[in-house]
Specification:
Elements lengths: L5 E2 L3 E6 H15 L3 E6 L6 H15 L3 E7 L5 H13 L3 E5 L14 E4 L3 E5 L24 E6 L2 H15 L5 H18 L6 E6 L7 H12 L3 E6 L2 E2 L2 H12 L3 E7 L4 H16 L3 E5 L8 E4 L3 E5 L3 E2 H5 L3 E6 L2 H17 L1 E2 L2 H5 L3 H21 L6
Helix pairs in contact: 1-2, 4-5, 6-7, 8-12
GO molecular function: cardiolipin synthase activity
InterPro entries: Cardiolipin_synth_ClsB, PLD-like_dom, PLipase_D/transphosphatidylase
Protein name: Cardiolipin synthase B
């Protein structure tokens, strides 16, 4: 599916971090009468996550069909297996995604809930408390993790459901014939959707039909940008095409702002900063966010294009993992998200070109070394797709 699949008539609401996301998530689970699908990268065992776990169990107890997919690596092998066993014992159908890398290196990095095919939640938030770091160290954060999701009602929910249902079936025991049939059904779903136009589009990335769908959406939006683009990511390490799209937009006079999370992983920071000098020279404004952990994967372009989802701007998200974003063409929603991003930029530190031209040689050497290690490793992991 190489095109955006726009569907009209959707009610899309922005959810700001866990304060707004978890009440919506729990309300959807508590009110479900027929079925719940939940897919997540991280599902921890803190008090917030335990509320979600208990709500899923209670739903299964009252007769709701509950299906949960948890990434085996993202949640930690032992913790993921323990949680799946606990959920299954309570009547929840739960599975780990790609245990022991039996189906290659890809992980499911998607964060999606669909309840009764009537409401969907999609974005960047894992099932983990906002005030605890998500890197395995469980360190307290100074402020709630900065992240976004959307609550979706309307016809696009039907397509979100088909994606999570397909993922559920893929994690089970499907023979080759059944897998081809599943691909055919999803392809037909996309064909039907393209006959309608308008407000919101679901974008998924996998390693079969949709290898570059999310990146192409960004490239198209940047290529058509006329006035401004604000892109937010915790991990910045895209391939050449993405970087060229940023600088090409800036060279046309588009105000391109890149808001990057820093301070979580030293190697990741060094890789991101290895790109800074060229981006800055070509007119891209870069802001580093230090207030708390930045986990948002969002962007706005001009006045009526916005995206919220799970995809970072790095090799793993753009070329390997399973991801899900929603694109919204709506001026009111874009303005609402812009206000949040403007506050994030205000909370960050603008990077000056002079800051990097005057770096000590040891720091430049470290950034260059990190870039070479990352690029070569990602080329291997993505079978040469990362450039």
């Amino acid at each position: 599916m190489s095109k955006l699949t726009f569907i009209d008539g959707n009610d899309v609401r922005l959810l700001r971090s866990g304060k707004e996301f978890f009440p919506e998530l729990l309300a959807a689970i508590h009110s479900a009468q027929q079925e719940i699908y939940l897919e997540t990268y991280i599902f921890t065992a803190d008090p917030t996550a335990n509320q979600v776990r208990d709500a899923l169990k209670a739903a299964a107890c009252r007769g709701v069909t509950v299906r949960v997919v948890i990434d085996w690596l993202g949640s930690g092998r032992a913790a993921a297996e323990t949680l799946v066993a606990d959920l299954c014992a309570a009547g929840v159908a739960a599975r780990c995604f790609n245990p022991w890398f039996r189906r290659g290196l890809a992980r499911t990095h998607r964060k999606i809930l669909v309840a009764d095919r009537a409401v969907a939640l999609l974005g960047g938030l894992n099932i983990i408390d906002d005030l605890v770091s998500d890197d395995g160290w469980d360190l307290p954060l100074p402020f709630p993790r900065w992240d976004f999701a959307v609550s979706l009602r309307g016809p696009l929910v039907h397509h979100v459901f088909h994606e999570v249902d397909a993922q559920w079936r893929r994690t089970g025991k499907l023979n080759l014939r059944a897998r081809f049939a599943l691909m055919r059904d999803l392809h037909q779903e996309a064909k039907v959707a393209r006959t309608r136009l308008s407000l919101a589009a679901l974008l998924v990335r996998d390693n079969l039909r949709n290898r570059s769908t999310i990146q192409k959406a960004y490239l198209q939006a940047l290529g058509q940008a006329k006035r401004r683009a604000i892109l937010v990511t915790p991990y910045f390490a895209p391939g050449r095409k993405f970087r060229r799209a940023l600088t090409a937009a800036a060279s046309r006079g588009v105000q391109v702002t890149l808001l990057v999370g820093v301070g979580q992983f030293a190697l990741q920071d060094a890789v991101a900063q290895s790109y800074y000098p060229r981006l800055l020279r070509q007119g891209v404004r870069i802001v580093e966010y230090h207030k708390t952990q930045l986990h948002a994967k969002v962007a706005i372009v001009d006045d009526d294009w916005a995206t919220v989802g799970s995809s970072n701007f790095d090799a793993l998200s753009l070329f390997l993992n399973h991801e899900a974003n929603i694109v919204i063409q709506d001026a009111e929603f874009t303005a609402e998200l812009e206000a949040e991003l403007s506050q994030g930029i205000e909370d960050g530190s603008v990077v000056q070109e002079a800051d990097f031209s005057s770096l000590p040689w040891t720091r430049k050497l470290w950034n260059g070394f990190a870039f070479l290690v990352y690029r070569n490793l990602m080329r291997i992991m993505t079978s040469g797709h990362y450039g």
